[in-house]
Design brief:
By secondary structure, this protein is an alpha+beta fold. The chain folds into two domains: 9-104, Phosphorylase Kinase, domain 1 (2-Layer Sandwich), CATH 3.30.200.20; 108-331, Transferase(Phosphotransferase) domain 1 (Transferase(Phosphotransferase), domain 1), CATH 1.10.510. The protein is built from eleven helices and eleven strands. It has helices spanning 65-78, 120-142, 192-195, 202-217, 233-244, 259-274, 276-279, 284-287, 294-303, 314-318, 321-331; strands at residues 9-11, 16-22, 31-39, 54-60, 92-97, 100-104, 108-109, 145-147, 155-158, 166-169, 175-177. A hairpin with a 4-residue loop joins β1 (9-11) and β2. α2 runs antiparallel to α4, α2 runs antiparallel to α11 (321-331) and α9 packs antiparallel against α11 (321-331). It comes from Aspergillus avenaceus.
Length: 332
Amino acid sequence: MSSLVPGYIIQGARWDYRNLEHVKGYNTHTSNVFKAEIVQRTNSSSNALKSPQWALIKEASSSDAISMENMNRECQVYDLPGVNTAKCFRQIYDVIDNRTIALEWLDTTLADVQYHPNARRTYSLIVAVLRAGLTSCILLERHKRVNTDHKPANILLSGIDTGHVTAKVGDLGLVVPVGSLFNAQPYAMRAPEVFLGQACTEPSQVWAVAALLLCWIKPGVLGTWKSPHPLLREAWCMAKIKRLFPDWNIPTSDEVGSHSLKAAVDSASYFSKELIDLRAISPFGEETQGVMPRELRDLLRSMFVANPVERPSASAVLASEEFRAFERLACE
């Protein structure tokens, strides 16, 4: 059980932190998370610069091996050159001990914000989210790392009511070396090649950034929603991708290796053609008609390339005409 109860003061290297309240997660947190008030020390050299008012305290459970592993990975990622100073990542303030860190506080997450179509402020928010997400991919690629946990709850936001949105990527405990992790990424954000047994690589991140936005705009269109059984989740998710992107060629069972993958691809092909719940999903262009502007649809479609070899890199997306066109729309 955590000792970080409200009112408890944690001593850090830079500042002290007074715990205020527990932060509710999305049933995916492997750590205890708290909002804290930053307490400056009298005559401390850290007072030379004005401190932020709030921080987020994350405490891994010492009895949970996965929680401790994620905490260790997150600290290692922040030690990589340029990560903690990059505007696209939530900043780390203090490593309190081997299972507790203090991080930058942001007001909310993308998962907590409602999508409003045809609103310029929404478009500005999406530009900020895309720029942060894709820039984070570029920086991690330089260190031969990939983030396997892109999702709306890990996109942190401040200033959404001011017109000057700050968007940052948080929760870096599942940033891993390129090609080292299989069966990763949240189901709704998982790239086609990862469903087919490949490890997460740089192109997998690009798909995930596009998918987290689509899932925010149209919840349930990707992922396990309405899946009839836990054992059918992979097949169900692949069938949804096939419905949205009919040009994706799901291999036959003769073309894949493991018995579980053989069953999944056969089921996915059947589901996408025969099940009413899935047949209700139209191809991407039709499914998003009237839900998002043409410029955003073109931009996301350029990222949703089923073949990872042909999928644009994060830097190519940011430099693309599709991104510039949507950015112009957001500025009108």
